[in-house]
């Protein structure tokens, strides 16, 4: 695989549920979905955000989309965070920069 980042294959929407970041990865076509479903694992996302709690992934192939639940990254969430990004929108952009690596 040539060097790719998520942004080469998909768009990302971000939101929050309290202290949990919700990321929807929206591949641009079926080929991109297949590749992202293979390499964009919960462990890859957890490592990219440097979280130690488990990241959960939900696959929605008919949309197509991959939805990630990333816990404990929003410093209390919208109501508990005094910074500018309580919803995690900039963190969505951060996922677009993740370099994709395929074993083998």
Describe the structure.
The chain is of the alpha+beta class and 104 residues long. It has one domain. The strands form two sheets. A four-stranded antiparallel beta sheet has the order 2-3-5-4. It is globular and about 35 Å long. The relative contact order is 0.29. The mean pLDDT is 84.
Rg (C-alpha, Å): 13 Å
Number of strands: 6
SSE order, as H and E?
EEEHHEEHE
Query: Helical proportion?
Result: 25-40%
Q: Can you tell me the overall shape?
A: globular
Total domain modules: 1
Strand order of the largest sheet: 2-3-5-4
Q: How many separate helices? A: 3
Proportion of residues in extended strands: 25-35%
How would a textbook summarize the main sheet? 4 strands, antiparallel
Mean pLDDT metric: 84
**Low-pLDDT sequence parts:** none
Separation, N- and C-terminal Cα atoms: 9 Å
Structural class: alpha+beta
InterPro entries: AtuA-like_ferredoxin_dom
Pfam family, one: AtuA_ferredoxin
Organism: Nocardioides luteus
Protein name: AtuA-like ferredoxin-fold domain-containing protein
What's the quick description here?
This protein is an alpha+beta fold and 104 residues long. It contains 3 helices and 6 strands.
Topology:
Layout: E1 4-5, E2 10-17, E3 20-27, H1 30-39, H2 42-49, E4 56-60, E5 65-70, H3 89-96, E6 99-100
Antiparallel strand pairs: 1-6, 2-3, 3-5, 4-5
Descriptive labels:
3 helices; single chain; globular; two-stranded antiparallel ribbon
């Amino acid at each position: 695989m040539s060097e790719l980042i998520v942004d080469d294959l998909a768009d990302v929407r971000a939101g929050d549920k309290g202290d949990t970041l919700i990321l929807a990865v929206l591949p641009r076509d079926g080929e991109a979905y297949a590749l992202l479903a293979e390499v964009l694992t919960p462990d890859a996302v957890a490592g990219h955000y440097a979280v130690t709690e488990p990241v959960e992934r939900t696959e929605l192939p008919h949309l197509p989309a991959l939805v990630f639940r990333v816990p404990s990254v929003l410093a209390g969430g919208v109501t508990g965070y005094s910074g500018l990004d309580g919803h995690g929108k900039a963190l969505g952009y951060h996922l677009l920069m993740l370099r994709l690596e395929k074993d083998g």
